[in-house]
What we know:
With 371 residues, the protein is of the alpha+beta class. Among the domains are: 1-99, Helix Hairpins (Orthogonal Bundle), CATH 1.10.287; 260-370, Sandwich (HSP40/DNAj peptide-binding domain). Helix content is 26%, strand content 27%. The chain is built from nine helices and 15 strands. A four-stranded mixed sheet has the order 10-11-15-14. Strands 1-9-8 form a three-stranded mixed sheet. α2 (20-34) runs antiparallel to α3 (44-58). The chain is elongated.
Amino acid sequence: MATTDHDYYELLGVGRDADEQEIKRAFRRLARRLHPDVSDEPDAEARFREISEAYEVLSNAETRQLYDRYGHAGLRSGGFTPRHFGLGDLGDLFSAFFGDDLFGGGTRGAARGGDVAAEVAIDLVDAARGTVVPVTISVAVPCPTCGASGVEPGTAVSTCPRCGGSGRLQQVARSVFGELVRATTCPRCGGAGRVVDHPCATCEGSGRTLEQRTLEVEIPAGIHDGQRIRLSGEGHAGALGGRAGDVYVRVHVRPDPRFVREGNDIFSQVDLTIVQAALGATVTVETLDGPVELRFDPGTQPGEVRVLRGRGMPVLHGSGRGDHRVLVNVVVPRRLTEEQRRLLAEFERRSGEDTYSAEDGFLGRLKSAFR
Length: 371
């Protein structure tokens, strides 16, 4: 869940209508100033973690929309968990966020692995209870032959002769404004600063091989359809020993024909015959926790709502549960025998004004349903 309650837009110093590029520029500017490796400010580490969290939320369209509508509470209920970056090399952190080096150079060897997307489908009852679901994915793992070095065992790498191991080339151009220095990635080594003369035969020098892996994904109780779960470090292995990416599992909750979910509340319908509604009856009603017996009083009207407190969906990452609201539907017979028709006609002749006196009108029952 979110670790700060400060406004994310204020932390980055941008307006709520800022576009993606503006948000990225604001984070870069602040990160260069606040990273503990380069800042002397006493609260630099705490502020750096705050702006990193702010950027992670606002740079993603899904989490930004959730934050704009519901604030920090929406992120918590939506299962958002900020990534935890080590406060090591600043260039590595920018590579994790943007896929490039802080100063515009190449990856220089090790690079963070890519993320993996997966999907699972569960029943509504499982979403209410929480469950564990196996997910099989294909991921890149460190090569077992070369130990992720990309080099054939028994051989060594050499320093790139073109860039001298820096991974970058500098070009100096003269103009009326003076000398302009432009740095580019070395084309010989691809920014790694080294040259592999004998690449590993197993992974062809990449340092990684593909592997089928089955993960046990814990689905928390109360999860909503379409929400994602992040498994940190379970994605593709990083290039040449870099840290692994993450796995994002999108959860689909199958519709249940017995129930309708609205937020944390559950709605269902119970059918009573006209005789049961008139005389009263005890019927079995399905709930998320199994069948329960409900007693309906004589004179139960169509549209009445029985509220089962605390029988709805659990609050995601919170406490308590919603309610289960049972809507009464009175079933009118479509086919009658002659005897049944005679009896109903006799009942109607014997009925008076008090027989159908209403204690509450339709609008009152409708308001009760919404309550």
